[in-house]
Design brief:
Distance between the termini: 27 Å
Number of domains: 2
Structural class: alpha+beta
Strand content: 15-25%
Largest sheet: 4 strands, antiparallel
Shape: elongated
Radius of gyration: 26 Å
Helix content: 40-55%
Number of strands: 8
Order of helices and strands: HHHHHHEEHHEEEHHEEEH
Strand order of the largest sheet: 5-6-7-8
Length: about 325
């Protein structure tokens, strides 16, 4: 593999990205945390809780991706670090909201010591107080782990002994990994996407999409394209597809403004039907560089087959990818 033939992010980070990250995190994390905690607390069904965790992680990933996109972040590693920090912070904030809820409704802590149960508004106020005391939060986590806060329903419909200890800790770790993993999946695309340092703008994904038969030796084709040799490639593309169940799909990215110095980039995916009749798409190459001359040779060529359709509208455009 010739790494020099592929787009490599510049690693640059703007002050705007830092600002957007802080603003989006300050607004989004408390909203997601409150939504998540009250949803899983009042809907104590483990399967639904998993879907809620998926939604929460996906939403955090969208927020982090939007900050990277608008902030023009071209450093995948730093965006990953920031997103992991946001996921950890979100879990901490969730605990800050969860502790007064459990202590109020299940342990009846406030009624026992103060003679009254907290209202929702007072629970939120307590959450803010807990946020300032990480050591207290950790002590409460240990206590909740010891006594538990929920049990598993048996066949008779009754709730058994509360889940505690290692088993409860495993559940908490799984919940966090779901949310953090989906957040990372959601934010990873934009920092890796081609960016024009000349015009300070992201590349645009073109509507033009080509499909061609899967070659007998894909590695040879890939090596040829990496070396800039497109002899025979254009004609093979324009011949169209004879086997719709096994093909290569080519998508392209171009500078947002015409340029003679910046290359185009191409993604190559293998689309095929497996033994079970399921359609599979496997990415084989991402952001492979094409010179302007080679791109023009491909896009300006005339189809050699009447069955060939050179382009169609691609819904995954620049404005919709996160």
């Amino acid at each position: 593999m010739n790494k020099e033939a592929y787009y490599k992010p510049s690693g640059k980070i703007s002050g705007l990205y830092i600002l957007l990250f802080l603003v989006f995190a300050a607004i989004g994390i408390p909203i997601l945390s409150v939504t998540y905690i009250y949803a899983v607390y009042y809907i104590p069904i483990i399967y639904i809780s998993i879907f809620i965790a998926v939604g929460c992680g996906g939403a955090l990933g969208y927020i982090m991706s939007l900050a990277a996109k608008l902030g023009k972040a071209r450093n995948p590693l730093l965006v990953t670090i920031f997103t992991v920090f946001a996921a950890v912070l979100m879990k901490y904030v969730q605990w800050c909201f969860y502790i007064p809820l459990v202590y109020n409704d299940l342990y009846e802590f406030y009624e026992y010591y103060f003679g009254y149960a907290l209202t929702i508004g007072e629970q939120l106020r307590e959450a803010v107080n807990y946020f300032r005391e990480p050591a207290v939060v950790w002590a409460c986590i240990v206590e909740v782990n010891e006594y538990g806060a929920w049990g598993i329903t048996n066949n008779g419909g009754d709730v058994g002994d509360a889940v505690t200890g290692v088993m409860l800790a495993i559940v908490w770790v799984i919940e966090f990994l779901i949310m953090a993993g989906l957040a990372l999946l959601g934010c990873r695309n934009w920092p890796k996407r081609p960016y024009s340092e000349d015009t300070n703008t992201w590349y645009r994904q073109m509507d033009t999409v080509y499909e061609m038969d899967y070659p007998a030796n894909f590695e040879n084709l890939k090596n040829s394209l990496e070396s800039g040799n497109i002899d025979g490639f254009v004609s093979n593309v324009l011949e169209g597809v004879s086997n719709p169940n096994n093909l290569l799909r080519l998508t392209f990215f171009q500078p947002s403004q015409p340029s003679h110095t910046e290359p185009y980039y191409m993604n190559i995916s293998h689309v095929f039907v497996d033994d079970k009749g399921k359609s599979i798409t496997k990415e084989l190459a991402s952001y492979l560089a094409m010179s302007t001359i080679n791109a023009n040779a491909l896009f300006n060529a005339e189809p050699v087959s009447e069955a060939y359709t050179p382009e169609y509208n691609n819904e995954n455009t620049d404005d919709s990818e996160d």
